User: Fold these one by one.
Assistant:
Number 1:
Amino acid sequence: MPAPLRICHIASEYSPLAKTGGLADVVGALCRHLHGRGHEVRAFLPLYAQLNTAGIRMSAVDGLQGLELMLGTHRYEYSVMEARASDSGPAVHLIDCPALFHRRGLYTADPDEHLRFLLLTRAALECCRQLNFAPHILHCHDWHAAFAPLYLHSLYADERLFAATRTVLTLHNIGYQGIMPAAALSDLDLGAAAAMLHQPDLQAGTINPLRHGILYADMLTTVSPTHAREICTPEYGMGMDELLRSRSDALLGILNGIDAQEWNPATDHYLPHRYDALNMGGKALNKQALLARLKLQPAPAAPLLGIVSRMARQKGFELLFEPLPRLLEEQDVRVAVLGNGEALYEEFFTGLQTRFPGRAAFHRGYHEELAHQIEAGSDMFLMPSLYEPCGLNQMYSLRYGTVPIIRRTGGLADSVQHFDPARGKGTGVVFNDYDTPAVMWALDTALGWYREPALWQRMVANGMGQDFSWERQGSLYLQLYQGLLRSSRDRA
Ligand code: ADP
Ligand code: GLC
């Protein structure tokens, strides 16, 4: 048994405290897993106005109250609160700086957006100092924490506490890079180390936080092996592909796990009826309850298609603009959609509900309970993503006996295998091309199999038998951490 590690995570989301998407689920579950394996984990997160504190114990951290931090000429005061969901959980340190974190949402388009996450990053490093916590691993998530590795090489280069710290940056979503104007350079407080910034960007008038994470982290990960290959191509690299190719030795894809307690149909407290693979009666009852809740016409034989998602271009909903209305016109199906985001997609789903009353329902907004009920009550779950670093809902669907219909990209490709009716192998319906005919084909294929209960039950059972637990995926992160520490010892 290797010695316990000290691991520091910096992230903008952490489930259940603050969540807009899968980042929260993954950071929260990974921290709990590492803590459960005996490692000393400290996670740093902003104390947003929207913090979900139900069932959480909060306490002020001694010695970390009324602190001051300058970012360039901006002076901020902050304190640190500790949040614990249970005695056996990891410590989450919340950076309480109302001037920056009490806003309309977790993310903003305000001119000081970069300062909000620079403060998170700097405060996390300062708190490690104050707490005399010398992390073996500093694990940063997405652009929000991406300056931390550069800071260790510059502002904190002489800090003894971080002398042996190795850094990991996980790219959950390379589509968001946090680009800020070059005029904000002084907010970084780099002094002469400003020379370490990417000069062509600066000359073009911008600073790209994510790029600097990719440049300076010791290891880079993304959240599936397929996406790790994809982001090295111009098609998926969002302008980072050349840099990522140059760092391909340091880039690894680790498929996300799912929180097997939170997402378990046998114990899920959001469900009116619980069930498991050997006792599927509850699933049919959940479908009835969901139809009733969403005011959809009852029809046990009609398949119910579910969607739960942020409504962003990434999710590929354009592809449904033609096929879904056509499907609703031609066949007896039900559609249940939950999500919010860009107006284009919200308007499409609102229009669908108006045009097909009683057969299509759209709940606009964010709703934890309904998300679980759609996973459990639907027969099929649609994810036609343009790109998908990992995606969690297809894994939740598999666990809940709901057949995912997905495009073969990123983590969707790594977690769902196209069903082969002849051999009875596979877990879902997988299409390749990002176009309307491909989606039509996938929907027709799914509906065809749905009409053959023996085939359908086989596919459902295959899906429910998959293991996406953190027990497996967490070990891969630990191997990565231990490999990093070994290589630095070998070099010393
Ligand atoms: P992404 O992080 O790109 O949004 P993921 O599939 O990794 O995609 O994770 C999405 C997570 O957010 C899932 O846990 C999903 O259930 C949840 N989610 C997304 N939209 C909503 C919503 N409107 N209401 C409740 N949960 C949602
Ligand atoms: C991102 C990605 C999603 C991934 C999640 C957690 O938001 O869009 O595919 O599952 O992060 O890693």
Number 2:
Amino acid sequence: MDLKDLYRDVILDHNKRPRNFGKLEPCDSSADGNNPLCGDRLTITLRLDGDRIDDIRFEGKGCAISTASASLMTEAVKGLDRSAIQNLHAQVHHTLTDHGGALPPAELGKLAALAGVREYPARVKCASLCWHTLDAALAHVGAPDAASAASVSTE
Ligand code: ZN
């Protein structure tokens, strides 16, 4: 099995059986993400333990790439603090947009499967929607209107 098959299998698996799918109630913050180009919509709810993500869920409707990316993301960020999440987001962004064909760094783990999206530039927003939505949810923690979801659009 070559790398492309492996990437495809991870994406298909996470689309078919999304991990951490649903809604946390109560939650410390939530955000809605919308990618109008593709029609992907998702809602992220999370609970914090200090600066770390204690638990996170997502729900929504979108294409296979947006769903798989959100599923992979929720697995990857659980237990991480804000700076580790920022670092991971930057690495995912680089992996999604690096056209030099370099292999993704080993610390990406299963998120490396998103490197397959590089070949479909129109789908990069599908894969990055969940990360922008997570950023919005983290920025929204403690906001005066924290009970309502923050919202973010890729446009
Ligand atoms: Zn999409």
